[in-house]
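Sanity check

After download, print the first record. It should look like this:
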Amino acid sequence: MSKIDIVRRITGKSGEKKAVVARVLQALTEVVAEGLVSTGKAQIPGVAHLTKVTRAPRIRRNPRTGEVFGLTDPKVSVKFKPLKSLTDTL
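Expected structure tokens:
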């Protein structure tokens, strides 16, 4: 489901204008991103918990010689854990 589909469905259910719903959805995205940056955690009520996860850097090796020649940067990702209410619905 794309952002446009979400905006259309919310508009149909709430009766609000598409522009208002799009601004609210954009604000939600920004607030969640700010929470992940500042505390490493965020929650979308009734939907999911989001947690920032940093994976350790990987060692790179030359497969022919076995020589270690550098580390990659640590990888940052977001873990999505759906809430019980969402999993029960599915």
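If your output differs, re-run the checksum step. Summary of this record's structure: The chain has a mean pLDDT of 89.
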